[in-house]
Specification:
Layout lengths: L12 E5 L5 H10 L4 E5 L9 H11 L6 E5 L12 H20 L4 E4 L13 H16 L4 E5 L9 H11 L2 E5 H6 L1 H4 L16 E6 L2 E3 L3 E3 L8 H8 L5 E4 L4 H16 L12
Parallel strand pairs: 1-2, 1-10, 2-3, 3-4, 4-5, 5-6, 6-7, 7-10
Antiparallel strand pairs: 8-9
Helix pairs in contact: 3-4
């Protein structure tokens, strides 16, 4: 078991999502507002399918240089552990395609989910999920891509004890979504703490999604007050995570949240927490 101590790593790099579709505008906005990179969410309907299309896509991404790009697969109801083995194989094949794309683009990190877009995980096989996730982690490693699992606000990955097993048994990295950790029932009911998502494996936390909380039917809410997320930022500072994505997709909320996080990071030491506003 790793030690979850009070170390404070070097200042993390802040990234934004690719919600601005024009590449020149996206790069200019990111640079002008002090972002170090882009969290690139794939659009399932526009994945390149032919080698020539893949090469054009790689050239397209090159317009963002020198910003770092990490990748994200928000594919709803595409489940590697579906109880129907055929649907599970289709999902695995799709993620293999994405991993190859990320590798071709020189990407090093890819975040995916288990049970995204579902209210529960009844239609999933626990054993197949672990087995196929392990295979994808290995497939990615062979191509220089670290496959990371994100905690959700529902399902298996919303429960820290099950999330830990999925990470440990598959060898996946961790993308810690602090908004999901705030919204999930397992933390809201006080059966677990938000830090339980990362304390078993702090050196495997490679990405963070930072915003206040998620509300069903509304989406991600920006941060209005530092005290709303101070505890969770303190948790992140006790991991090895150097990549914080402000996962807000409107300009006002994004910049408001970034201003608060910048002020927090300018402090000499993250303040110890005594209870976060819920």
């Amino acid at each position: 078991m790793e030690t979850f101590d009070n170390k404070y790593p070097e200042t993390p790099r802040l990234a934004m999502c690719n919600f601005i579709t024009d590449m020149a505008r996206l790069k200019r906005f990111a640079v002008d507002h002090g972002f170090a990179g882009i969290d690139w969410s794939f659009d399932l309907e526009n994945l390149p399918t032919r080698p020539a299309d893949e090469s054009r896509w790689v050239d397209f991404l090159a317009a963002l240089d020198p910003l770092e790009i990490r990748f994200h697969c928000p594919f709803a109801k595409i489940d590697i552990g579906h109880e129907d083995p055929q649907k599970g194989r289709v999902a695995v094949d799709l993620f293999h395609r994405v991993i190859k794309l990320v590798s071709k683009a020189g990407g090093k990190f890819l975040t995916l989910h288990v049970g995204l877009g579902r209210d529960n995980t009844i239609t999933l096989s626990w054993n197949d999920t672990i087995q196929n996730l392990r295979r994808m982690v290995q497939y990615g490693a062979e191509r220089g891509v670290t496959v990371c699992l994100e905690n959700l606000a529902w399902g298996w990955t919303s429960k820290p004890n099950l999330f830990e097993k999925l990470v440990r048994r598959s060898g996946a990295g961790v993308t810690f979504d602090i908004g999901h950790a705030h919204a999930c029932e397992s933390v809201g009911s006080q059966h677990f703490e938000a830090e339980d998502f990362v304390s078993p494996h702090p050196s495997r936390v490679f990405n963070a999604h930072v915003y206040y909380t998620e509300i069903p039917g509304v989406g991600h809410l920006p941060v209005k007050h530092l005290d709303d997320i101070r505890d969770r930022l303190g948790i992140l500072r006790r991991t090895d995570c150097r990549w914080w994505v402000i996962e807000i997709k409107d300009v006002e909320g994004l910049l408001q949240t970034k201003e608060i996080i910048d002020a927090y990071l300018e402090q000499d030491q993250p303040e110890s927490s005594s209870g976060e506003n819920r």
